Amino acid sequence: MSFLNLENNVQQLTWTKHLNTSLKRFKNNDMYSIRTIKWLRYSGIAEGISSLLLFFVGMPLKYLADKPEAVRITGTIHGILFVIYVVTLMQAALVLRRPLSWSVKNFVAAIIPMGPFMIEPSLKREQKELLKE
């Protein structure tokens, strides 16, 4: 009976050690935080550019030149980049420990045309503040 208790304690200690090791990457260490917000900025810019390409290249080609494949291609690329942006936004919110309002603001900016470009200066400011710390 005591052997089972000892084995359970060892398993619990191993699990606790593993959990603490896993959570270390979500702590607000400098390089990881800077890299996370940098990826958020880059994915936001890429998502914004793909949105503009969809609206100003793909859709006119579809409706004016009767080429529906233009929207299929640019729309697929935009969709993939939007998903990447949402994933990096969730990662940044966890790593940087930002409130829900910060995440909602950045998510809404991704939905609004030109939104990623409007929110980018504030993300750049946050990145510079992290560099100072």
Task: Give structural notes.
This protein has 133 residues and is an all-alpha fold. It has one domain (28-132). The chain contains 5 helices and no strands. It has helices spanning 2-24, 30-64, 69-96, 100-111, 115-132. Helix 2 (30-64) runs antiparallel to helix 3 (69-96), helix 2 (30-64) runs antiparallel to helix 5 (115-132) and helix 4 (100-111) runs antiparallel to helix 5. The longest helix is centred in the middle third of the chain and has 35 residues, at 30-64. The protein is elongated and about 55 Å long. The N and C termini lie far apart (52 Å). The model has no long low-confidence stretch (mean pLDDT 85).
Number of strands: 0
Radius of gyration: 21 Å
Taken from the alpha-carbon principal axes, the silhouette is: elongated
Structural class, from secondary structure content?
Answer: mainly alpha
- Residue-averaged pLDDT, rounded? 85
Question: What's the total helix number?
Answer: 5
Q: Uncertain runs with pLDDT below 50, 5 residues or more?
A: none
Beta content comes to under 5%
For the structure shown, list the relevant keywords.
133 residues, 5 helices, 87% helix, elongated
List the helices and strands and how they pair.
Elements: H1 2-24, H2 30-64, H3 69-96, H4 100-111, H5 115-132
Helix pairs in contact: 2-3, 2-5, 3-4, 4-5
Quick overview of this protein structure:
By secondary structure, the chain is mainly α.
